[in-house]
What we know:
The chain is mainly beta. It has a single domain (3-251), classed as Thrombin, subunit H, CATH 2.40.10.120. The chain has helices spanning 3-10, 45-48, 92-98, 118-122, 241-251; strands at residues 11-16, 21-33, 36-43, 53-59, 66-72, 79-80, 87-90, 110-111, 129-134, 148-154, 167-174, 182-185, 193-212, 215-233. The strands form two sheets. Strands 1, 2, 3, 4, 5, 6, 7 and 8 form an eight-stranded mixed beta sheet that branches. A six-stranded antiparallel beta barrel has the order 9-10-11-14-13-12. The mean pLDDT is 85.
Amino acid sequence: MNTEEQLIKSTIRISVDEINAVGTCFYFQYQNICGKDIDVLVTNKHIQEAGTDFTFYFGTTAERKAQAVAFHTNPDEWLVHDSADLAIYPIHYIYDALKDDDIVLSVHPITQSCLPTDDDINQMSCFEDILTIGYPDGKFDVYNNIPISLHGITATPYSVDVLNKPEFMIDASIQHGSSGSPVFAKYRSDKPLLLGIFCRVYTIEFTSDIHFSGLTIEKAKFKIPSGTGYVIKSRCLLDFIPNLEAYVKNQQR
């Protein structure tokens, strides 16, 4: 399996059943947490907070045919970031629920080794080519269960924290539904560099009159996606390590 195929297999569509909303999560592996590798699903906190009943659409075969896993999550099972719009979910809860159903999930994790080092960041230009994979506007290849890949560029330098937050901006025809999508640097090394996690679309607001039969009925406000948006820097994933260490120790008791 080449790198591109691995990236496609890392992303998972997530549906918040209570509000019929769609977002993206991805499969991430923390390495050497109290001597263990810990697999989690990464998404945005605003998706996790939107409900407790989720449907995860995993690939289950080499052809990646979809297996919808409807799953009720306990809010206490999620780990949420103190300040960033991030949440992670230990995937063993899902594996445990499926162990009697003879279902083998075909997913591939993005590993902690894919986070950019200081040397990687110092070598980046102000205008870095990027790739993001997810489900913009809920769209994907339904037959093959393949997410949509969008190519773009950093809209702000990666080395700078936008508005003094651990975020940067991208220009990549981003739409709603991309929340939780991983964002990678293109052409940077022999391994994918996970730059961050997409969190929100920058929208353009305008007011327009609504006309009917020649009459102006009312003014209405509209918001349309600008194609640009904000990405949480992947270093924020490291902030979960103390929580994961406590989680592992609790599991070992």
